[in-house]
Amino acid sequence: MADKVLIVDDSVSMRQMETLILKAGGYEVVEAANGKEGVARLTDDITVVITDYNMPEMNGIEFIEAVRGGTVNRSVPILMVTTESEAEKKQEGKRAGATGWLTKPFEQDQLLRAIRKVAAPADF
Amino acid sequence: MSASVDPLETFREEVAELLVSLEHALMQLEEDPADLGMIDDAFRSMHTIKGSGNMLGLTALGEFTHMVETAFAIVRDGKAVVTPHLIELGLAARDQIEALLGTHEPDADILAEGERIVQELIREYPEVGGAPQRASIRETEVPDTGGTETTWRIQLTPSSDAFVTGNNPILLIRELMELGEMLIVGFTDKVPLLSELDPEQCFLSWDILLTTSKGENAVRDVFIFVDDIWDIRITAIDESSLDSTDLDYKRLGEILVERGDIGADELEAAVNARSYIGDALVQQGFVSPERVEAALKEQDLIRKRRETRQSLDTTSTIKVRTEKLDTLVNLVGEFVSEHATLQRLAAAAGDPEILSTAERLEALIRDTRDLAMQLHMVPVEVLFSGFRRLVRDLAKDLNKDVKLVLEGVDTELDKNVVERLKDPLLHIIRNSLDHGLETPQERQKAGKHPQGTLTMKAFYSGAHVAIQVSDDGRGINTDAVREKALVQGLIADDDRLSESELNELIFAPGFSTTETATNVSGRGVGMDVVKRNIEGLGGSIRVESASGEGSTMNLRIPLTLAIVEGLLVDVGDQSYLATMSSVIECIELDDAARYGDQKLVNYRGQLVPFVDLREYFQLDSGPDHEHAEHRQLLMVSSEDRMLGLVVDGVRDTFQSVVKTLGKMYEGVEGVSGAVVLGDGRLALMLDVDRISRLTDK
Question: Whole-angstrom Cα distance, residue B407 to residue B414?
């Protein structure tokens, strides 16, 4: 079964681009337009979450905190996507419990590599 | 929302919506400049347009929007207030974004308007100008510290909730592994009994010894998401730039104290116990055996690294004048001949003591000679690179455009041989440039790249060093050669010569094809002189040529003095050496699907011929014939082709001076020299080219 990625981003075009890349990389995709939707769509079969930082309703940090403090799939790897001007937000994301981040703009390979890195099976 | 699958189209629709909400926010702000929600809305609209625009490669749009976004960020962060001017500029920016999105390449008017808005924003909020962004994609590069390798001791203790935050330690360790060579010891001493184990918690810790040339930051970056939650201690314990005269690293006890595994008191107590320090510490319960093992590994690693470094240091630091080396080689030569006399006299005297002394002396002299010869080797690079300037100047004189490609420059040759090769090679190069390679115009007419290529390549070939000089010029005109040879009486009218025989005529004494002598190749010295010089070195020269495609001069220079590195293989009870430059890899014979009796194997999807060396050398199958399944297939390359050699076993790599074979082996095909192994036995050098040619038939 293909790994499932949850994309949390308020930009439709951004979600669409990420979806295209991920599907080409063999992933299934679930989309959410903000943190609140993201929490609602997070299920136990999600392998990785990618979240934007800046979103209405519930931003990326609040979203990560909600996942880590919740009960559903709370240890799922979460990649935070930030623009360069938000670089200092990485620390904030890290404290909230993000697993890694990706700086926008990125190329297809960079996204797939970042996902593979955190989604690799934890075989010992 | 759109069903379009074209992100650019989706983006246009999205921007249209965002611009509506931006306009709405700006209008609201005009009425209530302190409405934080609206400021945030305006900012986010810009932010999304910037982010997605950059992703789509719309950099002009991304850069412009970034400037405007920065202004709104300043206001949002409370560093400035909303002014009517900002709202006016925001509205202008809104139109500008629409304009930028509506055109593929913005014209001068649009660009000027963008510049005006940005300049006014900068005047109002100077910080905007200080925040130019890079909209282009970049990879974060890990700086290499330029050869200095540091060994880091990384003591990694993940927080107990490591698994819960999705930070799998194994993934970080794998990332670390990409930085360099790694040695790792895991500790399980904190893992509780299964009945008390909480599977969501992490109880493991690791000691990692990482040797890398990437700097400390690269190492720390791996842990950037966990460094304030996990216990991570990173210590540099060895550096390649350190003076390595001191081979000894710290003592075991010191390492354990330094790591914080034991205290100084405990160390003292263990020292007094008068047994091995590690055992004593474990016995007294001061430290777990795992931790002692980790410290021992560290000690061992550093000692090995320092040893390697020291041997490198000494081999690279001695300079000797070449005259001294020449003298040494000569003296050794005299030794050898004097010794022959001694041995004859000893044999005549029949005194066993004198005889055995003479034998021991022979071994010593042999070693000394080998060593002296090794000292006399230089890489052909010395020879080849001297031709760069010549090729450049000649090409210029002849109005030709020629690229010189050098290959195998590490191949070593005796220094004296190198000197005697200079003139012949010079002549060959001149010929290539003058007669072989065409002018750019001629080349273009022939459908070739205007720049010609001259390649000089050196490689070990059995007991020889092969040097190839090839050009991609017009090749030898065999018709002209035949005519000339007829005129000069070198061949008779009814001689039927093959293409290659015709080519070889250029080496005939006095032969020269060009009607007019140029000032480059001149008249007089012909290829016959080149051939004589090469043969004077005990070598040979052959020419290959294809009309319109170019010519190659193949020189074979005997390797009597050259050192080869090869792979030792066993066939029957004889050892053979295959030169490293010819070996591709060794595989189990079983792995290769054979094609019946055809002596072909399927090697990585390619059909490659193979030769069973037992059959080839007509050797007894030997005692281990029953274990035929253990036979190996040595894949080698020969003259740009692949060939498999079936051997009984592969032993080791071996480096040695090659000796030419005596008269005894004159009739043996497929071997071209011998090396003396450590135990005094001979290993024969495989002449891969020769064996390969056999498979043609």
Answer: 18
Rounded to whole angstroms, the Cα distance separating B402 from B318 reads 38
- Give the B window 149-168 contacts with A, CB below 8 Å: 163-168
The CATH number, out of the four listed (1.20.120.160, 3.40.50.2300, 1.10.1740.10, 2.40.30.10), of the domain defined by the range B7-141: 1.20.120.160
Tokens of B144: 């290499």
| Nearest-by-CA chain A residue for B18 | A11
User: Residue B370: what pLDDT?
Assistant: 75
Residue B637 to residues A38, B105, B466, B485, B590, Cα–Cα distance (Å): 58, 54, 14, 37, 20
| Location of structure tokens 């590490």 | B410
- The answer to whether the beta carbons of residues B100 and B118 sit under 8 Å apart is no
Q: In what order do the strands lie in the sheet with B600-603?
A: B583-588, B632-638, B641-647, B606-612, B600-603, B593-594
Helix (H, G, I), strand (E, B) or coil at B147: coil
The residues with which B676 forms a beta bridge, in sequence order, are B682
Per-residue CA distances from B320 to A28, B242, B343, B378 (Å): 68, 26, 33, 13
What is the domain class of B563-695 according to CATH? mainly beta
Q: Where in chain B are the domains?
A: 7-141, 150-314, 322-376, 379-558, 563-695
What is the spatial distance between Cα B52 and Cα B533, in angstroms, rounded to a whole number?
A: 71
Provide the mean pLDDT of chain B.
79
Tokens of B343: 């041995």
CATH topology agreement for domains B7-141 and B563-695: no
Total length of chain B: 697
Query: Which bin fits B78, alpha (ψ -120 to 50), beta or left (φ > 0)?
Result: left
Instruction: Classify residue B627 as exposed, middle or buried by CB count within 10 Å of its CB (0-12, 13-18, 19+).
Output: exposed
Cβ neighbours, 10 Å, residue B546: 14
Rounded to an integer, the average pLDDT of B187-209 is 85
Phi and psi (nearest 5°) for B296?
Answer: -65, -40
Instruction: Tell me what ipTM this predicted complex has.
Output: 0.83
Asked whether the bond before A105 is cis by omega within 30 degrees of 0, the reply is yes
Question: pLDDT tens digit string along B282-327?
Answer: 887 888 888 888 888 888 888 887 777 766 655 555 677 777 877 8
3-state class (DSSP) for residue A33: coil
Whether residue B201 lies within 8 A of chain A, CB to CB, comes out as no
Class of domain B379-558 (CATH, top level): alpha beta
Counted residue by residue, chain A has a size of 124
Cα separation, A26 vs A22, whole angstroms: 6
Bridge-based pairing state of the strands B682-686 and B671-676? antiparallel
Neighbours of B456 (CB within 10 A): 24
H helix intervals, B223-288: 252-259, 264-272, 277-283
User: What are B80-88's contacts with CB under 8 Å, separation 24+?
Assistant: B80/B125, B81/B33, B81/B34, B82/B29, B82/B33, B82/B34, B82/B39, B83/B33, B83/B124, B84/B30, B85/B120, B85/B124, B86/B124, B87/B26, B87/B29, B87/B30
What would the mean pLDDT of B188-217 be, rounded to a whole number?
84
A11 touches chain B (CB under 8 A): yes
CA separation for the pair B342, B649 (Å, rounded):
41
Contact residues on chain B for A10, CB-CB shorter than 8 A: 44, 48
**CB of B33 closer than 8 Å to CB of B82:** yes
Range 529-568 of B in CB contact (< 8 A) with A: none
| Interchain proximity B73–A85, CB inside 8 Å | yes
Band of the pLDDT at B243, cuts 50, 70, 90?
low
